[in-house]
Amino acid sequence: MIEVLAQITKYLNSLDWAYILTFIVIAYGLNHYKATDFFYGVFKFKIATRYRVLIIGFVYGVALYFIRDYQLRMIEILLQSFVFALVFHKLILEKFLNRLFQTKPKV
Question: Residue 87 belongs to what domain range?
Answer without folding.
Answer: 16-100
